[in-house]
Design a protein that fits this description.
With 189 residues, the chain is mostly helical. It contains nine helices and no strands. Among the domains are: 65 residues, 434 Repressor (Amino-terminal Domain) (Orthogonal Bundle), CATH 1.10.260; 32 residues; 29 residues, no CATH class. The relative contact order is 0.07. Pfam families: HTH_3.
Length: 189
């Protein structure tokens, strides 16, 4: 018996590959390989010869094959289209047309940064006074004797422009512009 004949006999009895594989103690892929082979193994041939028809009559296409009915022909149109023709389903509603995407509003124009450096006396004199008063109050609270000596540890770094130090190897120090380039350099104290 060939593998194709074994498959036809299995379908006629109403068994699926998985059900027959379970009865024979093998796996479904093994059953599929046996049915695809040119000759079926002797165990499969004996089992198909001695098996009674499936008690449930099979399921799906196996039941139809056991009953001897021909499979239905494929319809020319899709099932949804046939239902629409018969009036069982309303016609599809066309999708609403989308509005074309609008461009986002333009961003506000940025002004170029000021290229001039302002003097510390004009801009930060009040800030420097407030910071020194703050440093004195912190030194008093911490019990420090000399507020100016510890002001660098207490005060935040200056927020005004810095100058390039001529003696600093990186040519950049947190020295205010009002000071000379080498005064108060972080590396050359």
């Amino acid at each position: 018996m060939t593998g194709a004949e074994a498959a036809e006999r299995r379908k006629a009895l109403g068994y699926t590959q998985a059900a027959l594989a379970k009865l024979l103690g093998t796996s479904s892929p093994t059953m599929a390989r046996w049915e695809a082979a040119e000759s079926a193994p002797e165990a499969l041939t004996r089992a198909l010869g001695s098996l009674a028809p499936s008690p449930g009559g099979g399921r799906g296409p196996y039941r139809r094959a056991a009953a001897g009915k021909a499979p239905p022909e494929a319809p020319s149109a899709s099932p949804a289209r046939q239902r629409r023709r018969e009036g069982l389903t309303p016609p599809p509603v066309p999708k609403a047309r989308r509005k074309p995407a609008q461009a986002p509003p333009p961003l506000p124009v940025r002004l170029p940064p000021a290229s001039e450096v302002q003097e510390a006396e004009a801009v930060g004199a009040v800030l420097l006074e407030d910071m020194s008063a703050h440093a004195e109050r912190v030194a008093e609270l911490l019990g420090l004797e000399d507020a100016t000596r510890h002001a660098r540890r207490v005060l935040p770094p200056p927020r005004y422009p810095v100058a390039a130090c001529q003696r600093c190897p990186w040519k950049r120090c947190p020295v205010p512009l009002v000071a000379a380039p080498a005064e108060g350099c972080c590396l050359w104290r």
